[in-house]
Amino acid sequence: MIKASIIGATGYTGIELIRILKNHPMVSISKLYSESYKENKADEIYPHLKNNLNLNFCEFSKENFEDDCDIIFLALPHGHALNLASFFINQNKKIIDLSADFRIKNTNHFYEWYHKKHTQQELLKNTLYGLPEITNKINYNHINFVANPGCYPTAILLATIPLLKFNLIEMEHFVFDAKSGVSGAGRSLQLNSHFCEINENINAYQIAGKHRHIPEIEEQLNKFTLKNIKIQFTPHLIPVTRGMHITSYFHLKDNVTEKNIYESYINFYENSSFIRIYKDNILPQIKNVKGTNYCDIGFQIDPRTNKLIVISVIDNLIKGAVGQAIQNMNLMFHLEEDLGLHFITNYP
Amino acid sequence: MIKASIIGATGYTGIELIRILKNHPMVSISKLYSESYKENKADEIYPHLKNNLNLNFCEFSKENFEDDCDIIFLALPHGHALNLASFFINQNKKIIDLSADFRIKNTNHFYEWYHKKHTQQELLKNTLYGLPEITNKINYNHINFVANPGCYPTAILLATIPLLKFNLIEMEHFVFDAKSGVSGAGRSLQLNSHFCEINENINAYQIAGKHRHIPEIEEQLNKFTLKNIKIQFTPHLIPVTRGMHITSYFHLKDNVTEKNIYESYINFYENSSFIRIYKDNILPQIKNVKGTNYCDIGFQIDPRTNKLIVISVIDNLIKGAVGQAIQNMNLMFHLEEDLGLHFITNYP
Amino acid sequence: MIKASIIGATGYTGIELIRILKNHPMVSISKLYSESYKENKADEIYPHLKNNLNLNFCEFSKENFEDDCDIIFLALPHGHALNLASFFINQNKKIIDLSADFRIKNTNHFYEWYHKKHTQQELLKNTLYGLPEITNKINYNHINFVANPGCYPTAILLATIPLLKFNLIEMEHFVFDAKSGVSGAGRSLQLNSHFCEINENINAYQIAGKHRHIPEIEEQLNKFTLKNIKIQFTPHLIPVTRGMHITSYFHLKDNVTEKNIYESYINFYENSSFIRIYKDNILPQIKNVKGTNYCDIGFQIDPRTNKLIVISVIDNLIKGAVGQAIQNMNLMFHLEEDLGLHFITNYP
Amino acid sequence: MIKASIIGATGYTGIELIRILKNHPMVSISKLYSESYKENKADEIYPHLKNNLNLNFCEFSKENFEDDCDIIFLALPHGHALNLASFFINQNKKIIDLSADFRIKNTNHFYEWYHKKHTQQELLKNTLYGLPEITNKINYNHINFVANPGCYPTAILLATIPLLKFNLIEMEHFVFDAKSGVSGAGRSLQLNSHFCEINENINAYQIAGKHRHIPEIEEQLNKFTLKNIKIQFTPHLIPVTRGMHITSYFHLKDNVTEKNIYESYINFYENSSFIRIYKDNILPQIKNVKGTNYCDIGFQIDPRTNKLIVISVIDNLIKGAVGQAIQNMNLMFHLEEDLGLHFITNYP
Asked: Ranges for the Semialdehyde dehydrogenase NAD-binding domain (chains A, B, C, D) (predicted)?
């Protein structure tokens, strides 16, 4: 059994990690570290865990760290992993970091977008950007530190990379219009997660090149294409708890058919059990992936404009965060990639 | 492996049965019968099943019935099981009926509330009302036909029976104020499941002794107490998809303490892994049981009025329907009662 | 024109007051005092006011108070009006206080439930509890200070008082099961107004005799009946922004018919244009009163139990707060009671 | 007083027309024709109208038509106005048609998109496309028949036309990503307005050049520019009852600044009291216009891509349908354009 601990166990990603790790056949949970609740029984704070977890939350400190876990999940706000990562590496722990701290290789970009100097450049070089359907699986050999992708980048890159690989689209004028559930903003209190502000509303935020997932997406696209692609990315908050829906607009190359596109996706993802490609004009919806690790992709060509519209949907907390982290863990430990991740959505 | 078939596979309970049976370690699905979709691939109609189920829906007819299944789940509107049950009994199938047709032993009451003559009185005698936490487990031996309880009766009886058993409450003035998610009304189209009629609203319906779950609840209470209890039951629709929340009001007997109540519940449910009893004034919420087979129960005494208020919550489609049906199946086949039902809610 | 100012103009009640006062034909807004925004233009913080209001928020201080308004609305958290009221009385302002500070005449009860000594007992005696449909209109003559009722008390008293007046119900075992929208909890940040905690959920809170609206309701019932009634009151939060729905349970006196009840309500409210009584088994719903000053009341008798179930619904921010305050203002200034309050809901 | 009648009074637009006409100072309602309810009192079917409207619904027939109204609002499904319009013209009634039947001047396009031959070409020539902020006001003189624009075209054209007028954007690669509340789909029953299908979901529909509002939008753009613009338009359904949010993407011409854009909008709409232009990076939200006749417009330039992103929001049933119809009526009768339309949203 793999012994796993979580730092930041009481946020929305932490608590979802607990659920999935608890049901994972090859994992036992070691420690649950939390700043917010330092002594409480887990099911006292989160009664949905009652009968399932007999653990207390505890405080993390480097000084008194005694945890024989094999892997640490860092589920912390951006900036914290920078300070903690080398400590755990020195303790011979494997690490999966769910924050942005080690996602961007270009430290100038990191500074520009996160207003923080990257103090761990050596470690950054040995970190794997872990989007398992895109990343070469061979890269997981001997890797100890995975930077888990952001939710928006996951849904966008999975829709886009196969089209680039098979040379189906022009490399400019990418528009990604994104709609996200509110859980992506976390459990901390802020006016724009107040029920009355979200309910019966939709609002765009950090539009026109301001959202911090842009450099992450562009770095991956440019690594893949060796170009200097600039994307248009517009995130919106919609009144749902979970789920993410991306409407992508691409300029199609000449003479590309829907059949070409379908086959390219199928081909690209033939070994990826979490990607489902739709055809016959059926379009993905959040409700088909909520609570699962799937990314569903559908598309149509507009013959009037020769544009390709692709819809991709994920559960922002699972394929967009925790489920993907478990996929990465499975690969780091040479387990089946989908172990412990066979969820079907609770329809309706 | 148990081979299971579903009649009525494409309604909300049918589709949820598919999901849980698919993941059950001792079950393989045999046939999925549907009136609405007679030939389609299941994942064509319900894309959330893609990659998980390679079956077609098919039409049921007695004439051409060739199905070597061991058990049939009837997930049909009220009235249909009356016509089908004896056919399957003659075929030596076990049956779990999710409709109301065989829940009420008193056929006069059945006629009075359902306006239908009960044509299967012999069969009715051999049917078990299958609320596993209340029903004596010994009754499952040799039983072939289980009537699966209604959603409201499940949440109400689980909150009430232990209080009667330990003689903690007066046997009159029971008030059950119930709030249900919209999925309980099914997938068929009606004005009161139109989004714009439900959203930003709450409405009571069939109040003041009109709802058909009343005779079912009263029969069970009266069977248990040998009294003639009449309940007050008020159902409301709230703008959530899944979940049921019952606020029960009881007159407390003298000198009963919260400790007495807690211990009575704990005692009554000591072997029931799906019932979770809350204490320390924490109150159950739908969000802790959604997507699970749990019934969570919490309570407080009002010393000003000597009333006991009990809150019980379930997922109406799981513990209130399909999950309970699987519990019943497990018991009929002498499996562990909770096999294939270990769900933790996707919080938040 | 009446010149009106608001203290606490930027909370949910404050901002709704602005809207209604702005459209009131006999009012001009004088000043908008706010702690949160001390200089901003109103439509900069609340863009929905753009083109409608050319005013800045400003800071209130007793020292620099120069405001020639005729009436002050206090839309502040509980406790603040205690300190401010006499100041405004000395300035010859009329006052409508939307907090609980002056609602309860029994100062022992006030202390017991609000944990605060009532320091303004003299003033309290001269304060009118302003529920216009219940309060004798003659009492508004010469009154300068109105305590505006709470939202739950408004919806509960309007449903109950006529039944007591016409002696239709027993004076015990009152059960009020209440469901409220989230705006009632205000705009301040707290976990139980976080979208993800409210959405797809319902939760009871402060049950079993703990909610602070209980002494207010009981004082009014007891003033009316000269009895010592104790009520059972259970508030729940439902995932809607606005609206309040009360399901009331009463023991009926012998031989009371639905016709008796209907006529009693009609009779009691014959001069009350904001109370609408339903018949023919149609039940009130939040969606019929949202955005209006109406209280809709419907009911049914259960002949099986001889209980009367009454449903009353209001918009918690209008009839439950701001609209009622304007009604009170109209009466204080001898205007038509319904002036500026003719709203029909935006169905759907 | 203007006497107004509605054909199709019981759908969502019909019922909203009733509300606004009822409160309009220069209108009295004559007749309410409905197919669904032919004799009922209006407030029996729609209790929210109680105390406000003492009218019955009635059946329309050409044979027995006796209605001395001045204006008829046609709130019918597409196709019906084609058959009715000339009848009313012959009766000397003014007409506002809320369907698509007379919006598109190019009858080939009408046939192509609506699969119906346009049988009223003469009448069509004399019909005014009534988007009052764009249409020259002089055109309203002597006009008797107005085709009321669609909801999507309203929100899109109001955002786009000023940019074209002032030559700020390229005339290609227009992308309009639209999100609409469910009331736009009407009150008729269909699976994609079932609460459980919409709630906790978002879905795109009729994407890639399939939605029928496309020819209407393009005709207006091309009339204005004398070009042959093809747009990309992607509608989505979001889980809100009312509201429409358009995210528009434009290629900016060189050296255009945010100041240029702001001033162009302000200039274009200087006499339009229902258009509100945002600045300082504040973005429009549905919640600021819900229940009102406003169209709020905000925008930002992305200097990285030289794209302009514009957000426009309306209430789909008011500015997107009924409110705009009343604006058109006011102009046809030479009243103030905004008479009876001064609504501020019920925030929150």
From this structure: 3-142
Contact: A309, D208; criterion CB under 8 Å: yes
| Contact of C74 with C98, CB cutoff 8 Å | yes
pLDDT tens digits, one per residue of C77-101: 999 999 999 999 999 999 999 999 9
Topology of domain D2-149+319-332, CATH: Rossmann fold (3.40.50)
pLDDT in the model for residue A328: 98
Q: Do D276 and C12 touch (CB under 8 A)?
A: no
C69, C151, C196, C295: the catalytic one is C151
* CATH 3.40.50.720 domain span(s) along chain A: 2-149+319-332
Distance (Å, whole) CA C287 – CA D187? 15
User: Is residue D230 over pLDDT 90?
Assistant: yes
Cβ(A97)–Cβ(A146) below 8 Å: yes
* Contact yes or no for C337/C324 (Cβ under 8 A): no
**Residue numbers in chain B where pLDDT is lower than 50:** none
Element (H, E) at B9: none
What proportion of chain A, given as a percentage, has pLDDT over 90? Answer: 96
CATH class of the domain at B152-315: alpha beta
The band of D242, judged by pLDDT with boundaries at 50, 70 and 90, is very high
Residue D189 at interface with chain B, using a CB cutoff of 8 Å: yes
Query: Three-class SS of residue D131?
Result: coil
Residues 223-282 of chain D with CB under 8 A from chain A are 230-232, 234, 236, 238-243, 245, 247, 249
Best CA proximity match to B130, nearest among B331, B315, B308, B299: B331
The burial of A208, by beta-carbon neighbours within 10 Å (0-12 exposed, 13-18 middle, 19 or more buried), is given as buried
C93 half-sphere exposure, CB direction, 13 A CA radius: 25
User: Is residue A192 within 8 angstroms of chain D, CB to CB?
Assistant: no
Fold of the D152-316 domain: Dihydrodipicolinate Reductase; domain 2 (3.30.360)
Is C189 in contact with A189 (Cβ distance < 8 A)? Answer: yes
Classify the C-alpha dihedral A220-A224-A226-A230 as positive or negative: negative
**Å between C100 CA and nearest CA of chain A:** 23
Task: Indicate whether this complex's ipTM tops 0.85.
Answer: yes
3-state SS of chain C is CEEEEEECCCCHHHHHHHHHHHHCCCEEEEEEECCCCCCCEHHHHCHHHCCCCCCEEECCCCCCCCCCCCEEEECCCCCHHHHHHHHHHHCCCEEEECCCCCCCCCHHHHHHHHCCCCCCHHHHHCCEECCCCCCCHHHHCCCCEEECCCHHHHHHHHHHHHHHHCCCECCCCCEEEEEECHHHHCCCCCHHHEHHHHCCCCEECCCCCCCCHHHHHHHHHHHHHCCCCCCEEEEEECCCCCCEEEEEEEEECCCCCHHHHHHHHHHHCCCCCCEEECCCCCCCCHHHCCCCCCEEEEEEEECCCCEEEEEEEECCCHHHHHHHHHHHHHHHCCCCCCCCCCCCCCCC
Burial label for B198, CB within 10 Å (0-12, 13-18, 19+), is buried
d(CA D341, CA D338): 5
Q: Answer whether A154's CB lies under 8 Å from A324's CB.
A: yes
Q: Where in chain A is the domain with CATH 3.30.360.10?
A: 152-316
Q: What is the largest CA-CA distance in chain C?
A: 65
Active site residues of A: 151
pLDDT tens, position by position, D110-144: 999 999 999 999 999 999 999 999 988 888 988 99
Q: Where in chain B is the domain with CATH 3.30.360.10?
A: 152-315
Model pLDDT, residue D9: 96
- C189 touching chain A per CB within 8 A: yes
Q: Does B25 touch chain A (CB under 8 A)?
A: no
Which residue of D lies nearest to A251 if distances are taken between CA atoms? Answer: D173
